[in-house]
């Protein structure tokens, strides 16, 4: 198996060295860019498997860079930024980032997030047409053609909205979806006032999906930001 290629976009020398040294110890291949323009060229030239991206670049904002990359690629982008406000996280995730790690961070957490992103890459590349019509994640199965969901052999009786929510999360497994994005995809709008209704639907979906809704295995909440479908057999710190 080829070693994963990681593009590190970070203009801070100390942080960049920490990240690249960490990748090197884990035998990842990497390229380093210190500007948005350089990152775009590297992304086009090297076609990395994952991008680790700082938002505070000298020539352009990282959110703008995410939007540019998303215009031609769906490769995983993990933001690593000192911006810790929920609004900053939402802006990056709405632009198309897959995950958001706040500085300062532990190398263990960085590697865990990276493993999640790489599992998504492997899963996406290994799917066959048959697998694409049936989603399997642990005991959860969704038959897209039949419009049914199962936990083990037992069918989960879902309302149309709950089913839409489940399918949206499943098709973006491992990726944090913001409240705005979910509202726009499921209801056709992204009004912040509708977020409480979304929480209610997510709570009812969890009760039907999870063995223990108070300790969810599938749907992870990112408070103030959104939700993520977890792929089963992830390590605990990968979330």
From TrEMBL:
Q: Name one GO molecular function term.
A: transcription cis-regulatory region binding
Modification type 4-aspartylphosphate: residues: 54
Family annotation (Pfam families): Response_reg, Trans_reg_C
Instruction: Kindly state which keywords UniProt assigns to this record, in alphabetical order.
Output: DNA-binding, Phosphoprotein, Transcription, Transcription regulation
User: What are the residue boundaries of the OmpR/PhoB-type domain, all occurrences included?
Assistant: 132-231
Fetch the PANTHER family from UniProt.
Answer: KDP OPERON TRANSCRIPTIONAL REGULATORY PROTEIN KDPE, REGULATOR OF RPOS
Q: What is this protein called?
A: Stage 0 sporulation protein A homolog
UniProt source species: Evtepia gabavorous
Organism lineage reads as:
Bacteria, Bacillati, Bacillota, Clostridia, Eubacteriales
């Amino acid at each position: 198996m080829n070693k994963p290629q990681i593009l590190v976009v970070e203009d801070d020398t100390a942080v960049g060295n920490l990240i690249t040294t960490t990748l090197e110890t884990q035998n990842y291949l990497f390229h380093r860019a210190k500007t948005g323009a350089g990152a775009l060229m590297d992304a086009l030239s090297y076609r990395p498997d994952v991008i680790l991206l700082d938002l505070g670049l000298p020539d352009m904002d990282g959110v703008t860079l995410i939007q540019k990359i998303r215009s031609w690629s769906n490769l995983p982008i993990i933001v690593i930024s000192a911006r810790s406000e929920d609004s900053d996280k939402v802006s990056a995730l709405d632009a198309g980032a897959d995950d958001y790690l706040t500085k300062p961070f532990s190398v263990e957490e960085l590697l865990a997030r990276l493993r999640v992103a790489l599992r998504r890459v492997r899963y996406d590349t290994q799917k066959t047409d048959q697998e694409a019509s049936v989603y399997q994640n642990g005991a959860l199965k969704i038959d897209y053609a039949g419009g049914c969901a199962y936990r083990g052999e037992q069918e989960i009786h879902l309302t149309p909205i709950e089913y839409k929510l489940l399918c949206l999360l499943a098709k973006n497994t491992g990726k944090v979806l913001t409240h705005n994005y979910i509202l726009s995809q499921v209801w056709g709008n992204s009004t912040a006032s509708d977020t409480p209704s979304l929480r209610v639907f997510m709570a009812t979906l969890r009760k039907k999906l999870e063995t223990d809704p108070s300790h969810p295995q599938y749907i992870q909440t990112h408070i103030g930001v959104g939700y993520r479908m977890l792929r089963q057999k992830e390590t605990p710190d990968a979330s």
